[in-house]
Each structure stands twice: as structure tokens, then as C-alpha cells.
Design brief:
The complex is a heterodimer of chains A (about 675) and B (about 250). Chain A has about 675 residues and is an alpha/beta fold. In chain A, helix 17 (about 450-460) links the parallel strand 16 and strand 17. Chain B is α/β, with parallel strands linked by helices and about 250 residues long. The radius of gyration of chain B is 22 Å and the shape is elongated. Classes of the chains: A alpha/beta (about 675), B alpha/beta (about 250). Chains A and B meet through strand 5, helix 7, helix 10 and helix 11 of A and helix 1, strand 1, strand 2, helix 3 and helix 4 of B.
Chain lengths: ~675, ~250
């Protein structure tokens, strides 16, 4: 790992969107209930000596219910005495070192209150201290008790704020995304982490689903033009679409109500929303956990690495704001059994993918302190650069879907393949409207278009974005009429690159309407690939660079002073030698040296389009790439456009000119 | 906490240096989970086997003839996990899963398949779970203290050969002086938990050596004879049991 300490040297104001700034991308987890009250002071002193001033702790529901000796308050006292800052994670989460991850036993043991995945099986969390099944977050009994728990916490925080304000001055309450993202089938998640439909398919929730669907489609807009029109939305064919919409609705409601309960009395208390993800507890890691238990071998590093990739691209929300992603590494699961190099790789990767999006990592104190001092300093330096906005990950494309934790589909996969970490999946239209970075908005074919949603999306297109919409039956009559009115303005261009589509200029931007393929046959996937490439070309988007070896993963972070900080990750156990390819000539230097140069140091640059490099096993190579300015962007976009145009012309020629084949030598014909 | 897995793991499964794995020509066993004959998950230490996912078991058998394949059926896996849910803690659940896995793979008959399961139970835990439970009291405790630069300690409460609790005991009530006197500590724990408690005080170096030794009980017996281990209170029958295990392997 060659991430230099000089990362930490710059300290300017952030350029990131307000609300996404997080001054502590590395949160060290100290669980107050695991330490005897008499030892807490000594434990915190040790952390202070190691330079740790910000910590986080889970507040297990069960621990609060049985906290007769007020250990939480004593812990707050100890933290306040040492002027440390603290995040109190209140929502039930997985990966917590407490029986049933802190859930009261009766809540997690009743079979009729358990969540079921799409294959009608309970969702098991196979991490110590015990394997258990997740409860349904929609069960009325669960919610009643859960809200009581939150009210209790709310009262406690309000009392402390009033009577001992110094205790809670530097304390932040944190609500997380809870179990929703884990309601996935282990079987499908093994194939691909977010494969298939996610959500709670338990019988009790199915009843709620039907009631809610009836209620939703009784809105006037769906009954247009006749009252019977609403029935078409409730058919079995739309079951998956409706389920996805319903699960997202349940999750949004849960988050909103949780927040209300915590803010009832403690209205002035600092409250943050995290999306906390514990890869070791993910259903996609269930088989790996099992293999590790039965075989006694080490953790499944490649699987953990892949889970980080997949999760970090999903942007959850609370109300109309993005929640910040945090990746939790425990020392009770597979992470503990990895080698130091593997752990360091995962930590840095998590910081790069989650930290650069306003989040970071949550790591058990023992695990963090077991790593070398040098590595910790480097990780902290990287975090600092990210937290002050020197480096950030740009959302170049947003993919709007109905349900965040379900399969993104073939278009999403293709976008990810093209632009990697710069593409993000969102399930909130409001979040899309608040985003100012992305130049392309792609709407999932399972999205329901109401008139309001369509108007907002057309507004986005008019303001200079490229909005890609599917032509599906999921438009209400009002939405369809509005869309037809836009198309009637004329000037549209019909194209077909396997997937038929239409480009309609609107205002400063473009609207693209496409016919999604009905199946996912191999030839359809090829068509989808061509279509996505052409859509990206329309939006002037292309990869910053590519690698000649697909084993290398590239994470490009935008640099405050222009150019990109390119992190080249080798997640394999072998050294990889490869070429880094750019469309135009760029200069490349060591990222740390680049920061040093900004402060007057000597910068080593070599202009070229191709660079050879060697990345060690589990290594991360940080490079500064300059010269990718507007000119280079335009040159690259022009090259891509020319390529797409050439393909279109060839395709048109093949279909229109008898005897013409794509192998034809056109230049020879002219000469 | 009744089940302090973190401490249990730290003491009984300390992190050893991983054995070197041949990254170029891997030879270790490949673990698979298959659903109706199609592989849905594949794992081998330090390898990315994602390319095997989606292949049929017979295809993989053909492609990896030189390696041991250990395949589980998805339905079995799901059944075991659900069954293990009712057990109180991870240790018991993991033991249950291991037992099921070993008996299922080739009916547990094929020795090469069994060798794929390289998990090794800790020697003390193994002894506690063994026939010792028929001789030792039905309920008792073991207080283990590993003395080094940073002391580690755990109290195991055992009933009928199974762990009913394991955690770091709270000895703050004893005060700093009494805490340093093993008989005082054991007396306090026995009175608090209402079971006879056996104290074992071991040095960190010895413990680490025993944890990795092929025949740890021999080393334990030698250490007891050389006063390298404090057995508090000194109970002859227990020392005899240890010696039997050391020299007769029973």
C-alpha cells in the first residue's frame, strides 16, 4: 500500500454537497456493554493514547431493557469527561456482539413474526454470538415494541440534554437502515449479491401488501379513463413491480417513523442517518460463513470484496436526503480470519467507496488496533483527504429504480460494467432531483410513472440532463398524455441498436425513450450493451480510463484541484502487471506526490496514453491523473460519438443496401 | 454477557498464521453448495471460484479431477441452519453444523473427504465435551487465566458437558489485592455461581504453544509437574484425568 501521509496535509473547505460531509470516515466501535463500568475509563484512555477521539457504539435494544445499573449513562459520562465524540447507533443492526444482535428474545423467536425472503425461507444471520432469523419489521407486534424502545431512548436523551447537557454535547444519535437490505434469499444472493427480488414475503406482510396495493391504486390518477382502469395495475403480471414499490414504501415509512420517535422529546439532539452494511452478515455471504465454520479455513476474501462493490453503489435515503453509507467490519466473523493484507485492502476499499460518498467504515476497536500503526496512519490520512473534500466520488449516472435492494436488471448491470463506481442506484425521485452531478438519469423498466413523476423527470431533461425512460405499460393515462405532448413537439430521432429507441431534444437536455427487451437472452444482452454504450455517448460519458487486465478494479475520485485520483485495486492473491489505457494523452504521477506538488514540491509527470504498472497482491496503487480536462473530455466524447455513428451507419447500410456486409471495405469501394 | 464469543474465540481459537496456499496451482479442497445439481456457491481458501457458479456438479468434477470436492445440497444446508436456530449460542450451533456436514459428505466414510474439514477443536474444549462429563460434576465452572503482558481470562460454566455460559467474570468486587490471589478468586466465583469452580492459571507463551501442539496434553501434564500451571484448588482426580489424556489419549 503506498498511500502517503501527505494526504492529510491539505485542509480546505469541502466541495461536496451539504449533508454528505462526514468528518469521521473511520468510526471505531467500542461497545459499552462489553466492558465493565469500572474499566470503561481505562479503555477510553487507551484509545485516546492511540489518537482516537471519535468512537461509535451500538445500543442494543435488549441491553437498554435490562440496563438496571445505567451503564449507558455511565459510559456517556466517561466519554464526556475525556472530551471524545460519540455516535450512538440506536437501530437494531446485524453484526452486533450481543445475543440475537441485541433483539429481545421473544421478538426474534416467534415463527409467525419472522421475515421471509422471496423463496419463502426465513432470513438467517450466521454470525456469532448466535445464528438467528431476522424478524419482520412490518409485524405490528414488533413495531409496537420497537417504537416503545425508541421512545425510551428519546426520553433518556431528552432528560440528559436538559439535566446534564455537557454529557450529550458531542453525542450524535444514529438511525440506520436496519434489516431491510438483508431481506434477500441466500440462494439468489450467492449467484450475485443483489440478484432477484428482495423484500419480506412473509404471509403477514403479504396481507398488508394486498391492502396497500388496493389503497394505492384507488387514487384518482390510476382510475383514469374509467374506474375499471385501476384493475390493470393489480394484475398478477405486475406483482413483482407492485411488490418492489410496496417494500420501498414500507422501508421509507419505517425510517420516517423511527426518526419521529427519536425526535419527539429530544428535538434538539443531533441525529444522523447511516446506511450501515455488514458484509459478513449478508445473505450473500451465508454459504461462505458455513464453509468457514465447517472447514475451519479462512474467510472468503473475494466474496467480501465483491459485496463491498455491490453495496456501495446503492444510495439509500431518508426523506429526500441521501443517507451516508458505512461498511461495518467486525471481529466476530470472517473478517477476523483474513490476513492483514486482505483486511487492509478491504478497509481501504471501503473508505474509497463509502467514505468518498460521505460515509466510511465502522470497525471493531480490537480489529483496528491490531493493524500496524503505519497502516492506520495511512488510512486516516486518506480519510482526512476525503472528509475535507480533496477527493470525492462523482455520481456520473443515476439509475432510478423502484426498490433499492432488489435486482437492478440488465441495464443497471451494463451501466456498472461501463462506468464502474461512478454509477449509483437510487430509489427516490427526490434524491435524483437534488443531485447536481450526474448527467444521465436512467429509469428502470419496472418504474411506475405517475404524472407528477414524469413532470419532474421531464424537468430534469429540460435542464440539460439526458433522461432515459422505458416505453412500458407502467405510465398512468395522465403521464402518457404528457409524454405524448412532449413528443409531439417533433425533432425526435428514431434509432435501433438492437434496442429500438427514440431521442427527443427537450430544453437543454435530451429525453431517450426505449423499448426494453422482453427476455434476457444472450443476443438481447448484446443489444442492451450496444444501446447502453450509445446512450452514454449521447450523454458524453465514457470511462476515464481502462485497464488491460480485468482483474484490476479502478476507482476514480475527483480531485479538488482538477484531474482525478485514480486508485487501482488488485483484489487477487497474485501480482498483476497490466497497462492503463487513456483515450488522450495524460500525465500520471503518484497521488501523494501530486498533493506534495500542490504545496510546492517536485512533481514527476510523464505524458502518454498508455502506462504499464505492476500491482502487488491485495495492493492499492494511488495515482494522480491530470490532463483529463474539458478538451480531453470533448476529444473522448467525439471519439465515442464517431464510433457510435459509424456503427449506426454500418447497421443502416447492412439493412438498406442489398449485398452490403459489415466486412465490406468502404474505402476500397470509394477508391 | 452470558456468551462472550469474542473472548471465547480469542482464547480458544487464537489467530494463527494462515498456512501458505499455492496460488498458482491450488490443491486444497473445493467446497460447493448445489441446488438440483447446479452449483450456487463455491469456496476454496484464497481463491476466487466465482466462475464455477452456475456449472453443474458433474462438469466441475470433470474440470477439477485433481482436487477434493465437498458438495452440500442446498436443502440440507437450509434445514441445518434452521435447526441450529434453536440452540443457545454459536459454539453449539457451529458444532452441530460441523457434525452434520461431516456425516453428510460421503456418509462420513471417505477419509479424504473428512480430511477436508481441517477445523481442530481446542484441546481443553474437546476434553470438556468428552467422557469427562460423566466423571466430573454435572455442573461446574472453569476459570482460565492466561497471564502475559495483557492478561486474558474466561469463566466457562458447564452443565452435562455443554457450555451454559462463557464470559469474563466481574471480579471488581474483590479489590486489587484479593484479585491477585487465585484461591480468593476461585472461592468468590464458586460462591457467586453456586458451582464448584476449577481455576487454571497459565502463562501466555505456554498457552500459545499448547494451542498449536499436536499433543498438547503431554505439554500440559509436564507443565503441571513443573509447576508451570497453577491448578487452583489442586484436585488430584482432575490432574489424573489430564494425565490419562496426555499419556493414553483418552
Amino acid at each position: 500500500m503506498r498511500i502517503d501521509d501527505s494526504f492529510a496535509s491539505t485542509c480546505n473547505t469541502s466541495t461536496m454537497v451539504e449533508g454528505e460531509i462526514n468528518s469521521h470516515p473511520i468510526q471505531v466501535l467500542v461497545n459499552y456493554w462489553e466492558t465493565r463500568p469500572s474499566s470503561i475509563g481505562a479503555c477510553l484512555d487507551d484509545l485516546l493514547r492511540s489518537g482516537i477521539t471519535n468512537i461509535a457504539t451500538f445500543v442494543p435494544w435488549q441491553a437498554v431493557e435490562s440496563d438496571i445499573s445505567h451503564t449507558l449513562v455511565r459510559f456517556l459520562h466517561a466519554v464526556a469527561d475525556r472530551r471524545m465524540s460519540l455516535s450512538l447507533i440506536l437501530t437494531p443492526e446485524v453484526g452486533v456482539h450481543y445475543p440475537n444482535c441485541g433483539l429481545p428474545r421473544d421478538v426474534s423467536s416467534k415463527a409467525d413474526r419472522l421475515a421471509h425472503s422471496v423463496d419463502s425461507k426465513p432470513v438467517n444471520i450466521a454470525l456469532p454470538p448466535n445464528i438467528f432469523s431476522l424478524p419482520s419489521l412490518s409485524s405490528s407486534e414488533f413495531l409496537k415494541r420497537y417504537y416503545n424502545f425508541l421512545s425510551r431512548i428519546d426520553s433518556l436523551l431528552a432528560d440528559l440534554s436538559r439535566t446534564q447537557p455537557y454529557l450529550v454535547q458531542s453525542v450524535t444519535a444514529v438511525l440506520t437502515g436496519c434489516y431491510w437490505k438483508y431481506y434477500r434469499s441466500a440462494r439468489y444472493s450467492a449467484l450475485d449479491p443483489f440478484h432477484g427480488s428482495a423484500g419480506d414475503y412473509s404471509p403477514a406482510v403479504s396481507v398488508q401488501y394486498r391492502q396497500r396495493v388496493e389503497q394505492f391504486y384507488s387514487q384518482k390518477e390510476f382510475s383514469d379513463p374509467t374506474p375499471f382502469s385501476a384493475n390493470r395495475w393489480k394484475t398478477r403480471a405486475l406483482e413483482d413491480v407492485n411488490r418492489r414499490w410496496f417494500f420501498q414504501h414500507l422501508e421509507d415509512l419505517f425510517k420516517s417513523r423511527s426518526s419521529q420517535f427519536v425526535k419527539r422529546k429530544a428535538a434538539n439532539f443531533k441525529l444522523k442517518h447511516f446506511e450501515l452494511f455488514t458484509p459478513e452478515a449478508d445473505p450473500g455471504f451465508a454459504f461462505s460463513n458455513f464453509f468457514q465454520v465447517v472447514s475451519g479455513s479462512g474467510g472468503d476474501f473475494s466474496r467480501l470484496s465483491s459485496l463491498v462493490d455491490h453495496t456501495a453503489t446503492r444510495m439509500s435515503h431518508y426523506s429526500d436526503k441521501a443517507t451516508v453509507p458505512f461498511i461495518h467490519w467486525t471481529n466476530i466473523g470472517a473478517f477476523r480470519s483474513l490476513s492483514d493484507a486482505e483486511k487492509q485492502f478491504l478497509i481501504l476499499k471501503s473508505i474509497l467507496l463509502a467514505g468518498s460518498r460521505g460515509g466510511g467504515i465502522l470497525i471493531d476497536e480490537n480489529e483496528w488496533l491490531s493493524l500496524s500503526h503505519m497502516f492506520r496512519s495511512r488510512a486516516e490520512a486518506l480519510s482526512k483527504s476525503i472528509s475535507v473534500g480533496d477527493l470525492w466520488l462523482k455520481n456520473r449516472v443515476l439509475y432510478l429504480t423502484t426498490h433499492l435492494w432488489s435486482d437492478g436488471g440488465i441495464f443497471w448491470n451494463q451501466l456498472q460494467k461501463n462506468l464502474g463506481a461512478n454509477v449509483r442506484l437510487v430509489s427516490s425521485l427526490d434524491l435524483v432531483l437534488r443531485d447536481h452531478e450526474s448527467s444521465l438519469i436512467f429509469i428502470d423498466p419496472k418504474y411506475i410513472f405517475t404524472q407528477e413523476a414524469l413532470t419532474k423527470l421531464l424537468g430534469l431533461a429540460s435542464s440539460g440532463r439526458v433522461v432515459v425512460m422505458p416505453r412500458t405499460p407502467l405510465f398512468t393515462e395522465a403521464a402518457r398524455s404528457e409524454l405524448e405532448a412532449v413528443l409531439a413537439a417533433g425533432g425526435s430521432m428514431q434509432l435501433s441498436l438492437g434496442v429500438p429507441y427514440q431521442i427527443q431534444p427537450t430544453g437543454d437536455g435530451k429525453l431517450i425513450l426505449f423499448d426494453p427487451p422482453e427476455s434476457t437472452r444472450t443476443e438481447d444482452l448484446e443489444s442492451v450493451s450496444s444501446f447502453v454504450a450509445s446512450v452514454l455517448a449521447v450523454a458524453n460519458l465514457s470511462k476515464y480510463c481502462s485497464s488491460s487486465d480485468s482483474r484490476l478494479n479502478l476507482i476514480p475520485l475527483e480531485k479538488r484541484d482538477g484531474g482525478i485520483g485514480l486508485f487501482i485495486l488488485n483484489g487477487t492473491t497474485r501480482k498483476v502487471t497490466a497497462d492503463l489505457l487513456f483515450d488522450g494523452e495524460v500525465t500520471v504521477s503518484d497521488l501523494a506526490a501530486s498533493f506534495a506538488a500542490a504545496r510546492g514540491g517536485q512533481e514527476q509527470v510523464v505524458p502518454s496514453v498508455r502506462f504499464s504498472l505492476e500491482v502487488p497482491p491485495c495492493g492499492i496503487l494511488p495515482l494522480a491523473v491530470d490532463g483529463l480536462g474539458i478538451e480531453a473530455e470533448e476529444r473522448r466524447a467525439a471519439a465515442v460519438n464517431a464510433e457510435v455513428l459509424k456503427e449506426n451507419i454500418m447497421e443502416a447500410a447492412v439493412s438498406e443496401l442489398p449485398g452490403f456486409s459489415s466486412n465490406h471495405d468502404i474505402e476500397a469501394t470509394w477508391n | 454477557m452470558i456468551y462472550d464469543w469474542r473472548t471465547f474465540q480469542q482464547i480458544f481459537h487464537p489467530k494463527n498464521k494462515a498456512a501458505a496456499v499455492n496460488a498458482v496451482n491450488p490443491t486444497g479442497p473445493v467446497f460447493l453448495v448445489a441446488d438440483k445439481g447446479n452449483v450456487i456457491s463455491a469456496f476454496a481458501e484464497k481463491e476466487d471460484l466465482s466462475e464455477l457458479i452456475g456449472s453443474s456438479l458433474s462438469e466441475i468434477e470433470g474440470r477439477t479431477k485433481h482436487r477434493e470436492l465437498v458438495a452440500f445440497d442446498l436443502a440440507d444446508f437450509e434445514g441445518w441452519i434452521n435447526e441450529s436456530n434453536s440452540m443457545p449460542h454459536f459454539y453449539e450451533q457451529a458444532e452441530f453444523l460441523r457434525a452434520k456436514a461431516i456425516t453428510t459428505v460421503n456418509g462420513g466414510r471417505k477419509e479424504s473427504a473428512r480430511s477436508a474439514f481441517k477445523f481442530r477443536k481446542h484441546f481443553l474444549v474437546e476434553a470438556i465435551n468428552s467422557w469427562w462429563s460423566k466423571i466430573l460434576p454435572s455442573s461446574y465452572g472453569i476459570y482460565l487465566k492466561i497471564e502475559g503482558s495483557a492478561d486474558e481470562e474466561i469463566l466457562l460454566l458447564i452443565r452435562g458437558g455443554a457450555f451454559v455460559a462463557f464470559h469474563k467474570p466481574d471480579l471488581s468486587i474483590l479489590g486489587n489485592e484479593r484479585k491477585k490471589q487465585p484461591p480468593e478468586v476461585i472461592k468468590y466465583l464458586s460462591e457467586k455461581y453456586l458451582v464448584p469452580v476449577q481455576g487454571l492459571y497459565v502463562s501466555k507463551n505456554d498457552w500459545s504453544t499448547w494451542c498449536q501442539a499436536p499433543q498438547p496434553w503431554k505439554l500440559v501434564a509436564k507443565a503441571i509437574r513443573a509447576n508451570g500451571v497453577k491448578v487452583v484448588p489442586f484436585r488430584w482426580p482432575l490432574v489424573l484425568l489430564m494425565s490419562f489424556r496426555a499419556f493414553f489419549g483418552i
